[in-house]
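Section 5.1 Outputs to date
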Amino acid sequence: MSTLHDQHYIDKILQGETNAFAVLVDRYKDMIFSLSLKMMKNKEEAEEAAQDTFIKTFNSLSKFKGDSKFSTWIYKISYNTCLDRLKKNKKEENNISIDEFSSHLIKTMDNALSALEDKEKRQTIQNCLNLLPREENFLLTLFYFEEQNLEEIGKIMNINANNVKVKLFRSRQKLAVILKKQLEPEIIECYERER
């Protein structure tokens, strides 16, 4: 998925070979849907947002200047599309208090997560991420699962890298609170089985 490889198809599309867009759709459809689902928290809404993202991407492909990776650019379109849809729907979000957070909590969660199998760990983290507000879920997914750096995330979310760092810190705190609540029953059950 190199930028040059994407650029090859972008150039073809801009030269009139519109069927080359199918390659870019195929390449990014899973990730765009996944990011849309994190924002919309509804499968049908996410499918529509993903579809809108590709329509907007196709229609504004000539505006892509290559200042960033194509993936960063399309993720930004996806993010803004979801925000627009959410503003129209004005859906409420869950708010997790970080008052329960302590620096000891992250270490406890790391120990608890290391006890889980990798597959279980990924699923547990994914389930807990889904309990976060949309923007924080999206941010953590970009950072941890898509391995986007702070600057790329800033471009996608229209904020500077320092704001990304602050939001990332707060989102991690909230995730730690959720993980603690979700994992405590599993940990207690695990210890009881060992006795």
